[in-house]
Fold:
Amino acid sequence: MFNREVYVNRRSTLKSSVKSGILLFLGNSEVGFNYPSNGYKFRQDSSFLYFFGLDEPDLAAVIDVESDDEIIFGNDVDIDDIIWMGPQPSMADKARNVGITKVFPLGKIDEYIGKALKSGRKIHYLPPYRDSNRITLNRMLEIPFEELKSKASEEFIKGVVALREIKTPEEIREMDDAANIGYAMHYTAMKMLRTGMVEQELVGVMEGIAQSQGHMSSFPIILSQNGETLHNHTHHQILTEGRLLVIDAGAENNAHYASDFTRTLPCVGRFTERQRDIYTIVSQANNLAISLIKPDVSYRSIHLSAIRLLTQGLKNIGLIKGDTDEAVASGATALFMPHGLGHQLGMDVHDMEDLGENFVGYDDQVKRADQFGLKSLRMGKVLKAGHVITVEPGCYFIPALIEKWKKEKINAAFINFEALKDYYNFGGIRLEDDALVTEKGSRLLGSERLPITVEDVEKEMMQ
Structure:
């Protein structure tokens, strides 16, 4: 939790972005994974945390834009709670720590919202992603479940995004901390990796580091020798000589800020010549993109610059043919990189995307494309100082996608399908770092960068 003034100022700024009405915040509740009292690790809603700072279940809050009222709804513990949890501060004391003086029991939220609706007040809410909150909104606002997302307040969403996407110095310190935990996760896996291990062994070690130094992993760890499957969460394979291991993982620190790194490692400790060629192209695209990050540049333009380098590199080794710029314009390189260059990062690993990707990654200046590959770019808009973004180019050989394009003659003028026959068992490579946009350029988060050159990776793995 930050200082009281941080939350007071955040709420004050938010109020100025909404003309009238009541802003409704629903915190998260605990979720059981096999029965109610045996739950998943609790994670508070990020927007509730951002504006109210209270990291516990079963809370709600409102901000009345016109009266300036700010109220937290939550219950004090009773004797049964104390037996299992020990003595707890009162809700009034917790609320004072974040600058709130009005506290009501949670059961009063329905009555409060009901009175506001009867008097014709506008109730602004954010898109719900938990079923329990969808049920609550349906009950209080009488909005059909299928309309809850579309009827969320665009004015409210844009106000939250404008605040949360620009990271303040105290947030950047937390994100550097999360990056350092992420570094420890990846570096430990890099040093431990040996053929004959099961992928799951490395996942367990990395998750242990995340939980021993922070709150948890910032998302389910992706660790797989089938790197051509972009979000592969199976970890049953034995690490085998000649294969590549993609590790995409990050940490959420105790203040609930995230990191997100990817490295691709040769299971035997040294790259083959073919692996080295593709890896070098991807690492060059990663470094180029980082060098181009600065304020007033659109992230879509940086994505396209990285794609152009990737295209030229693949052309140099005979997998792409024809004019490089025409191949980029046609979307031919999406066969090898069907995702975007990166996304915003903050309290969520895909920061604020529960509010809607297009609100977070796009705006009136930059609209989302509909071309395969480019349409998967989550962050396209013009960069500002304080943005934190991931930089994650990749190159994948996905047999089913290659066969589809070959059969349907998609971009046949630019793809050397004959040469690709030798790459069906290659897998994939992705390399990802986290970058903060500064006043004049950018810097990587964390105290140290994970090894990324071929030479440094091999040196670390062979020591």
About this structure: The mean pLDDT is 97. The CA atoms of residues 181 and 212 lie 9 Å apart.
